[in-house]
Amino acid sequence: TQLLEQSPQFLSIQEGENLTVYCNSSSVFSSLQWYRQEPGEGPVLLVTVVTGGEVKKLKRLTFQFGDARKDSSLHITAAQPGDTGLYLCAGTGTASKLTFGTGTRLQVTL
Amino acid sequence: ETGVTQTPRHLVMGMTNKKSLKCEQHLGHNAMYWYKQSAKKPLELMFVYSLEERVENNSVPSRFSPECPNSSHLFLHLHTLQPEDSALYLCASSQDYPAATYEQYFGPGTRLTVT
After folding, report:
1. pLDDT at position B1
2. Nearest C-alpha of chain A: how many angstroms from B40?
3. pLDDT at A15
4. Are A4 and A103 in contact (CB under 8 A)?
5. Cβ within 8 Å of residue B52, ≥6 positions away
6. What's residue A108's pLDDT?
7. Is A9–B41 a contact, with Cβ atoms under 8 angstroms apart?
8. Which of B18-32, B78-92, B98-112 has the weakest average pLDDT?
9. CA nearest A29 in B: which residue?
10. CA distance A90 to chain B (A)
């Protein structure tokens, strides 16, 4: 079974701060996705990374896929209250199975 | 209506009740999914339908019974549930199967409480 562990589990920060959340595994994934789930809603896909070492930027969000394709990080610059939500990573492993991580719950306050 | 809709949004049921969750997608997709989201646990894939045929059943207890009458609708029939089945049940759809290749679009979920 391929597992994805996310850290931290919970993060509470003030508006304007920077933060990084991590998604780690002992398994290799062919690609990795990041989702954000806002309260009362389903997850929404933010980005997919497919190449080891790849970096993708989405406005204030920077996503990186580890060189060995076992881990990923999400960095948010100058967090805003609208960034509040549950951040999920999901990796594509053997037999094209998608495995979700445990999630990081982010709260950004004014 | 656009995207993926789910009804009801909230459901409280006793252990002896029978109820059904409904999902409808307005995206013209061919694949539909049921997921279970519990606190502090990863999202668990329960069932996958592709072109109205079940293609994945991930060791889900028989008290959960899916039904896909057409490519736009997906149901999850519930009977004699246990308190540990209380969770958020999410429906998703994608253009085709598998989920790892095609972007999934999720509904808002049904919050189920079993008393």
Report:
1. 57
2. 7
3. 98
4. no
5. B68, B69, B70, B71
6. 97
7. no
8. B98-112
9. B100
10. 9
pLDDT at residue B23, as a whole number: 98
Contacts of A101 in chain B (CB under 8 A): 42
Q: What is the pLDDT of residue B92?
A: 97
Closest residue in A to B90 (Cα–Cα): A42
Q: In whole angstroms, give the CA distance from residue B43 to residue B37.
A: 5
How much is the pLDDT for A81?
96
List phi, psi (to 5°) of A8: -70, 170
Which of A9, A42, A97 shows the shortest C-beta gap to B100?
A97
Residue B8's pLDDT is 98
Say what the pLDDT of residue B34 is.
97
- For chain B, give me the number of helices (H) and strands (E)? 0, 11
C-alpha–C-alpha distance, residues B103 and B97, integer Å: 10
Residues B43, A45: C-beta atoms closer than 8 Å: no
d(CA A72, CA A24): 7
pLDDT at B85: 96
Q: CA-CA distance, B71 to B53, in Å (whole number)?
A: 9
Q: What is the pLDDT confidence band of residue B70, given thresholds at 50, 70 and 90?
A: very high
**Cα separations (Å) of A18 from A21, A51, A72, A104, B69?**
10, 25, 17, 15, 47
State whether A99 and B42 contact (CB < 8 Å): yes
Q: Do A101 and B99 touch (CB under 8 A)?
A: no
Q: Residue B89: closest CA among chain A residues belongs to which residue?
A: A42
The structure tokens listed for A80 are 């805003």
